[in-house]
Amino acid sequence: MANNKDLKYTEDHDWVEKTGHRAKVGITDYAQKELGDIVFVELPAEGEEFSKGEDLVVVESVKSVSNVKAPVSGTVTEVNDRLEGEPELINESPWKDGWLVELDVENEKEFEELMSEDDYEEFSAE
Amino acid sequence: METIFDKSKSGRRSTYLNEDDLTSKKPSDELDGDLLRGEKPGLPEISQPELMRHFVELSKKNYGVDDGLYPLGSCTMKHNPKPNEDLAATEEFQDHHPLASPDLVQGNLRLMYELGELLKGVSGMDGITLQPSAGAHGELTGMLMIRKYHEVRDELERRTEILLPDSSHGTNPASAAVAGFDAVEIKSNDEGTVDIEGLKEATSEKTAGIMLTVPNTLGIFEKDILEVAEIVHDAGGLCYFDGANLNAFLGRVRPGDLGMDITHFNLHKTFSTPHGGGGPGAGPVGVKEKLLPYLPIPVVEKTGDGYSFDYDRPKSIGKVNSFPGAFGVLVKAYSYILSLGDEGLKRVSDNAVLNANYLKEKLKDPYKLDYEGVCKHEFVLNGSGMGEGIKTLDIAKRLLDYGYHPPTVYFPLIVKEALMIEPTETETKENLDEFTETMLKIAAEAMEDPELLHEAPTETPVGRLDETQAARNPVLRWTESE
């Protein structure tokens, strides 16, 4: 666990780190372990808009292809370009270097609705 | 082993051409300069005995259903009767050009027409197209007909969503998306079937239809299918039935009697064409009466004493294939259905279900089964917790050491460490017992000597391959090393 209390989590094992209006999105350590070695990441374009729950990023591992859904609604302000050449960053550093996209958050309330660290720990222990 | 290029020695030949047979024309007499390649084509030069040995050695490294059990779930790797191959290779069938004038190939058209009638009988549908080249192509054809249906009703603009249970085939959401729909996922309930409450919530005036895989990828029959059909129909949507798993209920149940509007068949799974070799396959689609006008053109029709192609269908979605279908596959399906007959087809599904349930009961301990109850043609084990650091991948790799093709792994996604097993109807009890023994032996090894599994396979021509490296940096063609 990242031990970073500013983080929020989704039931799909994604994390969201909010700084002001901006929210960085990534997948948790649990998620990367479940997926196995990541071999390809398809990122959205900067400026693209997403509603909460829409498919935001495609993450492909040796086992499967899965979609990371937008945890909150917003516009993409930045994507982690390094992942195109180094998808393994998600496995090596899911909390930091392996981040996926940064969103300009549309509705602060949606962020508050996400799980807290404690809730997520309880959720993923199930 | 060496590639054929490694074995090449300059000047060696496997055939010697008689100069009298050679044309004196050079390519440059016929083609413009920019169409000509400057350098030699780089073909291997090898003698005939060495050529034979090379390919025989390769063939010995292959593993197919003719070698042994091939329990690759969702793929129906079953024995395909060889006489059907002979019929498909008959020169009257094989040597006809697909664009030959219908009056010259009446026999071919008759076979297509009659196969269509047989498939209607099997599925309870009212019309058939034989054009699609595979299951997913059939799905797309079905989705395009759903589009057309709503377009004609002036409802396409608002009907943008296709509902998809999370236990459906992976191709289903892809087909819906390619046809321009948004895929809306519906979660399964504890029994592994469609959650009716979830379905009701997801259904709206936006619903264009639903795609149901039956039995679903857990091998479970959708027992509430009539209710599912009613909910979707009441909302104005259509029901698509993924019939890829038809060997689970052939001769017992017909999608057309379950409120389904469209279904596809995988002739290369259910009806006797070897599957998994990269094609060709065939994915015919059947539709109910209300969708008949939208079938792809041409439709084979019986006209008086003969047969013809009907192109005069203004509401058709058009062609979905350059030719009327993968004809050899159609011949095999026709022969398979007629040689088995009604009773034989029932025995196919009865044995598929019996074999799967037998194996499931034998393996559910020590392997885990998340969804209890009677399965259809396949079942999914949960391979977690089998030993220190043991994953499903290790179990699959160890099976290679015992000379088996492993089951499908890590699919469906709703089961942890999934092992998806489909024994098919063509395996004997002895084969299933032998496979059971091997699986139990591997489970014991996983507890006692997990390292053995982590290092597997060790008995195969190559050891464990680096799948990550292969996916990240694939080497897709041979190049001459310097």
Describe what you observe in this structure.
Chain A is of the alpha+beta class. Chain A has one domain (12-125): RNA polymerase II/Efflux pump adaptor protein, barrel-sandwich hybrid domain (OB fold (Dihydrolipoamide Acetyltransferase, E2P)). Chain A has helices spanning 29-35, 82-85, 89-92, 108-113, 117-125, and strands at residues 7-9, 14-19, 22-27, 38-42, 49-50, 55-61, 65-69, 74-79, 101-105. Chain A has a 6-stranded antiparallel sheet with strand order 1-2-3-9-8-5. In chain A, strands 4-6-7 form a 3-stranded antiparallel sheet, with no helix packed on it. Chain A is globular, with a radius of gyration of 13 Å. Chain B has 482 residues and is of the alpha/beta class. Chain B has 3 domains: 1-62, no CATH class; 82-340, Type I PLP-dependent aspartate aminotransferase-like (Major domain) (Aspartate Aminotransferase, domain 2, 3-Layer(aba) Sandwich), CATH 3.40.640; 344-472, Aspartate Aminotransferase, domain 1, CATH 3.90.1150. Chain B is built from 15 helices and 13 strands. In chain B, the strands form 3 sheets. In chain B, strands 1-7-6-5-4-2-3 form a 7-stranded mixed sheet, sandwiched between helices. In chain B, strands 10-11-13-12 form a 4-stranded antiparallel sheet, covered by helices on one side. A two-stranded antiparallel ribbon of chain B has the order 8-9. In chain B, strand 8 and strand 9 (306-310) form a beta hairpin. In chain B, helix 5 (106-123) packs parallel to helix 11 and helix 6 (135-152) packs across helix 7. The interface between A and B is small, with 10 and 8 residues.
